[in-house]
Structure prediction request, 528 residues.
Amino acid sequence: MSFWLWELGGLSYFCDMANNEDQFKKVVSHAREYGYIFASSEIYDGLSAVYDYAQNGVELKKNIREYWWRSMVYMHQNIVGIDSSILMHPTTWKASGHVDAFNDPLIDNKDSKKRYRADVLIEDYAEKIYQKAQKEIAKAKKRFGDSFDEQEFITTNPRVVRYLEEQRSILERMGRSLEKEDLADVKALIEELEIADPDTGSKNWTDVRQFNLMFGTKLGASAESAMDLYLRPETAQGIFVNFLNIQKSGRMKVPFGIAQTGKAFRNEIVARQFIFRMREFEQMEMQFFVRPGEELKWYEYWKETRLKWHLSLGMGEENYRFHDHEKMAHYANAATDIEFDYPFGFKELEGIHSRTDFDLKAHEKFSGKKLQFFDHELNESYVPYVVETSIGLDRMFLAVMSNSLQDETLEDGSVRTVLKLPAILAPVKAAVLPLVKKDSLPEIAHKIIDDLKWDYNVVYDEKDAVGRRYRRQDAAGTPFCITVDHQTIEDNTVTIRYRDTMEQERISIEEISEKMKETISYKNWLSK
Ligand code: ATP
Prediction:
């Protein structure tokens, strides 16, 4: 959470949770088994909410980053990229508001000594009530069949109306209290609802306190002269403090954008759901500087453009939705999340915010430097307004992995596990397989690799029967298998097998690269 803010529109936020736990578990274990993600420092039992990307994971992550970067920077003549540092002057975070307001409300249980996010305890309680309403609706649906009018039932069935009203009023009260920073009332609400420690059942709570999510560190050799710093909690501020440098050195004219990808750090109190909520994660952000008054037009443009980017990957239109914020953070005048349907329900994948001139003005105030643009057309200087698009690379990774992992029942009744990654993102684009380990087939396979490796990440695999190798590559997400057999020696042809359809085609060695290019070209994907 960036700056606490309760969103009424967020009611639906808790609706779809817990519906696909098995799929989620599968994704987590598959990611480990196939070299995508490991717990950090696993030999020491790991570190909570910190993960390492393994040999396939690093490639998938790099490819997602590249897909984003190309669409932002190469596809827009007025957007440039930067790579600013993680450590920044500490006043940056005073100006941005993070020192004073980047908080989550936490509460401790005095008996179990466990720490929780107070808002999450309340949200979970409200979710249970919501689920009761859902159960009633599901029962009625079953009873009435086709003639069931769900909307009417929701608004007229006394029990459902009561549940939904109860849920709404709890969440509204919490939202109001948090907004007013009335933490005593948040505690009172927990007590009134008799919320217990989910692990022990104890209701013996401490007061609710604000907990700043930034990680602190020190700069300097001696304890006396050391300067207190923070690891950046978002990449955006590195863009704002460079606004003038980039605008002048790049002779950029409003409207223009600055894009950046990089690590961010948040000391999340409750880190849950694998790489969905991490303490060290990567963001891909773009700040778009516009004329004051034109920000809402650009906000709509970026909403549409970003959704199109997601849809270009072909992961199903039904898996995305906008969640417009009804109440805004102090710096924003419009905000939405692009939510993705994860195995644990629809959750925020990307945020699009119209941030007004808040950040640049704040940095002007704290630095004493003018951060303005002289607009020749208007013949005036102004502090530009900003529209931001901000997506978590790790959350995108999780969306791609969980959407792609499928168990398919084949015609013969057997089940194959296949990772149907968008081919443009796949870590390994092709596996080259000699049918047998002799008769010069391995040498031919290596020669094919020597040719393809200039353009694609390709691997060689000769272990096990070819059918098993196909399955292994399916599970790893490799879109093509190229098999070299005895016919190859005679006529220079190979079999190319397609991961998604399992179809096979005989083509000449010279055609392989072109064939792959048909599927793996940024132009084809990004222009969708
Ligand atoms: P949430 O409400 O889930 O905590 P947020 O609204 O605080 O997210 P922002 O501050 O808007 O998130 O950050 C932009 C993006 O960064 C988010 O849309 C998300 O994809 C990603 N992100 C934020 N926090 C984390 C985290 N702890 N782990 C992984 N990704 C994160």
Notes: Residues 118-144 form the longest helix (27 residues). DSSP finds 18 helices and 23 strands in the chain.
